[in-house]
Amino acid sequence: MKKVIAIDGPSGAGKSTIAKLLAEELGFEYLDTGALYRAAALNLVRLGLDEKAPDDAITAALEKTRVEFEKGRVLLNGEDVSEEIRSPLASHYASVFSARGPVRAYLLQTQRSASVKADLVAEGRDMTTVVFPEAFIKIYLDASVEERTRRRTADLIAKEFAVDEDRVRAEIIERDARDSGRELAPLRKADDAFYVDSTGLSKEEVFRRIIELVRIGKE
After folding, report:
1. CATH number at residue 130
2. Burial, 83: exposed, middle or buried (Cβ in 10 Å; 0-12, 13-18, 19+)?
3. Average pLDDT per block of 10 residues along the chain, 219 residues long
4. How far is residue 196's CA from residue 213's CA, in Å, rounded to a whole number?
């Protein structure tokens, strides 16, 4: 495994933005694991599955699923779904299906294999605890529910989705509970991870804090 900077945290904490900035600054590859889960979930929904689907049905559907991450774009069975997977529906089902064993097993090796080829900045929910427990830098990036609601609402409006801010807040709270409460690879801060609260900070301020932690970790 080459060098990995692993970033975990709840939805809307700014993981993707910061991971991209770090990768560019350090000359690392960026691995958007959330996009992989969203794409896999999208195909399961397209194949008619929902949260009540049994594991064997999910396993069979995943045999018809090919997810790839190339140059910042997400391909599902060869189709570019980079924009579609950012919808509220895809976000919901990514959280639902990411708690299922077959989905996690399906994507685990895909994620780990990426670190064999290049130095990585990887962000997600279990990067520091399960996927890359030997990462040389671990970050837990957090923000308040209100801050994350504001960011998510602004992001959806920019993408021209219809937005109800109260619903966005409720969905964030629901997803937090689901991600941290699941039995399989729950969202939690690794014991050796640096904690960074991005509430009230600009992306530049968060980036400066984290790049300093990376430099400290290298010493």
Report:
1. 3.40.50.300
2. exposed
3. 93 93 94 90 95 95 89 87 88 88 90 87 94 95 97 90 92 92 90 96 95 79
4. 10
Q: How many CA atoms lie within 13 A of 196 on its CB side?
A: 27
Residue 89: what are its φ and ψ, rounded to 5°?
-65, -45
Sign (positive or negative) of CA dihedral 87, 127, 79, 159: positive
Q: Which amino acid type is present at position 79?
A: E
Per residue in 92-146, pLDDT (tens digit) is 898 889 889 999 999 998 888 888 888 999 999 999 999 999 999 999 999 999 9
pTM of the model: 0.83
Question: Do 5 and 137 meet the contact criterion of CB atoms below 8 Å apart?
Answer: yes
Parent domain of 160:
4-218
Structure tokens at 178: 């689901």
**C-beta of residue 6 within 8 angstroms of C-beta of residue 19:** no
Q: Is 183 exposed, middle or buried (0-12, 13-18, 19+ CB in 10 A)?
A: exposed
Other C-beta atoms closer than 10 Å to the C-beta of 148 total: 25
How many structural domains is the chain composed of? 1
Across-strand partners of 122? Answer: 6, 31
Task: Give the CA dihedral 152, 158, 162, 167, nearest 10 degrees.
Answer: 10
Q: How far apart are the first and last CA of the chain?
A: 20
Radius of gyration of the chain from its Cα atoms, rounded to whole angstroms: 17
Secondary structure class of 137 (helix, strand, coil): strand
